[in-house]
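Lecture 7, part B: from sequences to assemblies.

Below are the input chains for today's worked example.
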Amino acid sequence: MRDLNNNVVKTIARWCLVLQAIMISSNAVALEEPGYVYMNVTIRNAMTGLIRPEIVYRCQSKRKDYGWHRASKPGAQFSFPIILIDGESKIPAIHICEIRSALGKATLVIENTYLDAKMCPHSSCAHEATPKGIVFRGLELDFKELFPKPKPVEYLELPWTSWPNRT
Ligand SMILES: *[C@@H]1O[C@H](CO)[C@@H](O)[C@H](O)[C@H]1NC(C)=O
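Predicted structure of the full complex, as structure tokens:
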């Protein structure tokens, strides 16, 4: 009987150690610094079929001004890398890009989280200036699926606001 009790005590003691180890390691995970991921934000000229296809644009975040850039022909593009908090899907990095063309002006608000970095490796997503306006072309998670998976998408983000008529 004493032996049996001893064994029970030993087993309980062992389980306590295991539990403690689990608790310490999960604390360590919670205290760990969050990781970061990078992605490129890309603005591309896709002003096909126009006599004046040129676009100019300036992107800014709260902290950084990327300055004015020019993409004179369809196909020309500009990318800048942004840093995102890994695993954080509720606090997006916000960049505002003002894009100008012969057809008008568009002030695009771009919100990215690490999910976009996962969806858009190697600059595979872009904001394209087209004659209709700014079109997003890339991959997005299809949340209509039970297990959301990346799906190619292409949609108009923002039409041009035409320049005031000078008559
Ligand atoms: C961003 O673009 C640059 C230049 O095209 C490339 O070297 C870099 O690997 C890209 N970064 C990502 C995260 O796609």
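Note for the exam: The chain is about 20% helix and 45% strand. Keep this in mind when comparing with the next example.
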